[in-house]
Amino acid sequence: MVPQLVSVLLLHLIIVFSFSLAASDPQNYRSFLRCISVHSHYNDGLIPIYTPTNSSYSSILNSRIQNLRFISPKYPKPHIIATPLNESHVQAIVICSRKHGFFIRIRSGGHDYEGLSYTSRLINNTSLVLLDLSNLNSIDVDIDERTAWVQSGAIIGQLYYRIAEKSSVHAFAAGVPTTLGVGGHFSGGGIGYLSRKYGLSADNIVDARIVNVEGEILSKESMGEDLFWAIRGGGGVSFGVVLSWKINLLDVPPNVTVFTVNRNLEQGATALVHKWQYIAHKFPKDLTMFVTLTKVTGHETIQASFQSLFIGGTTQQLLQIIQESFPELGLKREDCIEMRWIESVLYLFGLRTTNSSLSAFEVNAAISSFRGATDFVKDPISKTGLQGLWRNIVQANGTSPSIILTPNGGRMSEIPDAEIPYPHRAGNLYVANYNVHQSQVSSSKDQALMTKNLRRLYEYMAPYVSQSPRGAYVNARDFQLGYNEMWTDYTPSYEEAKIWGIKYFKNNFDRLVRVKSRVDPDNFFRDEQSIPPSFS
Asked: Which of 1, 168, 231, 250 has the greatest number of CB atoms lying within 10 Å of its CB?
C-alpha cells in the first residue's frame, strides 16, 4: 500500500484507509486530516502520512529508532507518522495538531536516550503524532562565507561529508556517531572531538529557522534574542520545531593525527586513568584525548582505550606533547596515523575503512538496547575510587557496560555558563557518560537488569561528581532524574520540573522557563522532560 497522501482530492482515500486508527475520536481524526489539507500549500505537494494500517508504517517508525528497547510493544507507538517534505508541511502539522489536541513528537536522528522523539508515556489515549524530519535534510555549504545552512533532519555524518566535499581545511564541532540527528544534537549542545578547540555545536550556531506554536516561521531576527538563546542548548522541542540551522565553519589543517592506545588493568590502566584526570583538560586546545572504559569479554578485567585527535601540527609535535605531559602512556610513532579530518571522523567512530563515500557516513553502528546517564567530574577520583568503579563494571553481569570520559578545558572553559543554556563549563574536568548495553530487543526482565546495573554505577559515582546540583547532559536524557506526567491537560509545576531541570541547566533553567512562558504559554510543545511554561 502506498503512503496515505494528504490533499483535498485524496482525502476520502485517507479516511477509508484509516478507520482502524486507534484514535480517541475518529471524527476528530478526520477533521485533523481536513485541516492539514487546508493548510498545505498546493504548490508544495502532498504530505506523506502513515498510520498503523499502512504497510510502510513499521519501516518508517523503525528507520531511526537507535535503541532497540523502544521497539518493545510496552512502549506506546505514534498513531500518526508525518514525514514532511518542506517547511510549509511542518507548519500545517503544527497548526492542525494544536487545533485538534494531538501531541507531537519531533524526530531528527532518533538517538534520544529515553526515546522521547518517537514515543511517550501518555496516561490516556490522546493521539500521538510523530513529526519525522528525515526528509528535511538539505545542506548548503558556503566556503566563501565560511558558513553552512543545515536542515534538522540531516545527520551529522552527512554534514561532515558535505563540508569536506567543498574544502579539506574546514570542519564543524559536533559528535559521533555520524548518525546523530542535527536537530536534537545541536539543540542540546553537541559535544565532540573539536569542542576543546571550538566549543559545542551550539556555540557555533549563528542563525536558525523555527516553526512556533502559531505555525509561523521565525528567523533569529524575528524570534528574538531569548528564543534564539534557548534553542541552542536548551532543547529545541520545548519551544517549537527547528527547521534548520546556520553554522560557522571551523578551521582544521589538511592533515590531522589520531591514535588509539589500549591498556588493561595488568598493563597499568588504573594509574593511567588516574593521571589522565589531572592533565587531559590542560592539554593544548588542539589535542583531545577521550577514554573509553569497558569490561573485557570473558575476563574479570577492564580495558581503558585512550583515543585522541590532534589538529595542531605533525605527528612529531604530538609525540613531544605526550612525552612531556603523559609519558606513562607509552605512545609510539607507529600508534599514530595521519589522515584528513574527514577520514578521522570515521576512525573515531570506530569505522576502519577506506570507503569515504557518503554512504560510509550514513552507516549505523551495531544498534543495541541500552540505558544511559551522565555526570560531570570536578575533582580527580583517587586510585582507590577507580578500583571500586572497576569492580562495579565487572559485576554488571548480563549486560555490557561502558563509560566514556570526555575532557573539558580549552575553549569549553572559556565560554561563560550563561552564554547558552548548556552550563557545564569551567570547573569541570570531564564528562562521564555511562551506558549499559544488551545486543537484543529487551524483555521487561532485561530492561530491569540494565536499569539495575546502570543505577549501581551511577550511585557508586555519587561521591566523586558534581553536587548541588548533580549535573547531567540534556542530550543524554535520564528519567531517573525525574519527569513530567503526561495527562492531556496537565502542566507540570515549576517545582516539579526543577527537580531534573537544574541538573541539566543549573541557573539557566529559570531563564528557559521565562522563554517558554512567553513563546508557548499553553505548553503545546511538551514531553516528559520539557521546560514548563510558568513558575507556579
From this structure: 231
